[in-house]
Amino acid sequence: MGKQFFSKVRVFYQEGFTLIELLVVLGILGILAAALLAAINPVEQLNKARDAALENTASEFISATVQYYAAHNTLPWTTGCYPSAGLNGQITSVSLSSLSNCITNPLVSEGELKQSFLSNTANLQNIYITSTGPNTTMACFQPQSHTVQADANSKYNQNGTVNASCPSVGNSCYWCAQ
Hints:
Layout: H1 2-8, H2 19-40, H3 42-72, E1 91-95, H4 100-108, H5 121-125, E2 128-131, E3 137-141, H6 146-149, E4 175-177
Antiparallel strand pairs: 1-2, 2-3, 3-4
């Protein structure tokens, strides 16, 4: 009797997935993709890359200025390439692109900067130079990424003076190299 009972029972095997199972898996993958996209934040990553390029350009310009001053005991814009420079080379919030004559001659011609430095005009337009003398030349830019806005070096205003409300995200704080 036992053999007959077991022989009559049919075993059904299900092949594939049901529509509900597929929809649940797709929903979970969608939630994970949205969470990953929110964590990565591609706009913030692009802003970080832009800010890193501006930091590099500002630091490179300050380094070239210091090297030029060490060799000539004068700032590059006091050589007549920027007529608006004051006594001892004072300039305030001058766009780096406005100093292109000072970059070409004497900084590029003396080998302090490469000619390709001038090719990135977008970066040069966003960096502002302030110099109250040979020891206080600053190159400042307004960061776009929240990370650089919160950086301790983002504590200045456009002309390189310390802003008491900085660093803070969303404020008009500038990152400066000196």
